[in-house]
Amino acid sequence: MMAVAPTPVTVIGGFLGAGKTTFLNRLLAAGTTRYAVLVNDFGEINVDATLIERHDGTTMSLTNGCVCCSIGSGFLETLGRLLDGDERFDRIVIEASGVGDPWRIAEIALIEPELRLDGVIVIADASRITRLVDDLRVGDTVRNQFARCNVVLLSKSDLVDETDLDAARRAVLSVRPDARIEILARETMPDLSLLGNRRVSAFRADGVEDDAPDHEENFRRWAYRRDGAFDRGRLAAAIKQFPPELLRLKGACRIADEAQPLVFQMVSSDWSLSPVDRDQEAGLGSIALVGVGTRDLPPDAELEAILDGALARPARA
Ligand SMILES: Nc1nc2c(ncn2[C@@H]2O[C@H](COP(=O)(O)OP(=O)(O)OP(=O)(O)O)[C@@H](O)[C@H]2O)c(=O)[nH]1
């Protein structure tokens, strides 16, 4: 039997809302490479797999929380199915969850003979990373994500000026003085094989905590599902009531009097509603949002009451 060359694997990490899915979609749209994409969403509704735009390959979602904390189960099974299947891919790209440690996923590729770890890319939001690395509640997680990657891509450079971009660069270098940092510009798309590093040991830094905390314990996820629609004005008001412990909220929703479903995105207190791609529409229900917060996120009922207050009231007969 002819030996099959191992499939290169790229792991994409980065904190909640850094721009991993956006980067992945641009990557999938950019060229002719056949990708197998594995997305690990930190929520019971797998929003990310829905948000990955259709491409000439396959997308598999990894549920069950944070893959890097529960590497044994679903993740290995999914990988096994991929490797045993008839389809061949040029590259496997794995999107880690926003609170996960991408290196822990990369380690699987190091030990699996059919895979070759080619790169661990961490995306850092240029408009937030300076604050995040020093944040008392999430700083550890953020810094740990940089600890063993071979390249850092600074996203959202369109939101910052040169001074802030420089500060973002310095924030990354404060954690990883040897980091290779690239700016992720809207006009150009980096080539993954050029971002890769086959000499993996070169970015396998020493002195990093191996028994990093279980992310399931440090973060709490939350899901909100409703039939019906939000009222746009009430939604804007409701978002202002969210506690700062709610770090991320995303998913699909409907707005009263608007025919199309919309994608809702909230990173910290910044939020947006955007049209859903026609290809994505089938997977999106009326309101299905997933949230992630710190461990001290208020109880579900409290958060639900805030969003319930944003629902459009049915007209009385
Ligand atoms: N202005 C601007 N916004 C961006 C850019 N990249 C991503 N975003 C926005 O940032 C928000 C989060 O982006 P995602 O790509 O979903 O982030 P993510 O890292 O996949 O998020 P999680 O998987 O939930 O951790 C979305 O509203 C994006 O539209 C960018 O380069 N510039």
TrEMBL record:
Belongs to the SIMIBI class G3E GTPase family. ZNG1 subfamily. Keywords: Chaperone, Hydrolase, Nucleotide-binding. The lineage of its organism: Bacteria, Pseudomonadati, Pseudomonadota, Alphaproteobacteria, Hyphomicrobiales. GO terms for cellular component: cytoplasm. This is GTPase, G3E family. PANTHER family: COBW DOMAIN-CONTAINING PROTEIN, COBW-RELATED. The keyword Hydrolase applies. It catalyses: GTP + H2O = GDP + phosphate + H(+). InterPro entries: CobW-likC_sf (IPR036627), CobW-like_C (IPR011629), CobW/HypB/UreG_nucleotide-bd (IPR003495), P-loop_NTPase (IPR027417), Zinc-reg_GTPase_activator (IPR051316). GO terms for molecular function: hydrolase activity; nucleotide binding. It holds the Pfam family cobW. Zinc chaperone that directly transfers zinc cofactor to target proteins, thereby activating them. Zinc is transferred from the CXCC motif in the GTPase domain to the zinc binding site in target proteins in a process requiring GTP hydrolysis. Gene3D superfamilies: CobW-like, C-terminal domain, P-loop containing nucleotide triphosphate hydrolases. Residues 219-311 form the CobW C-terminal domain.
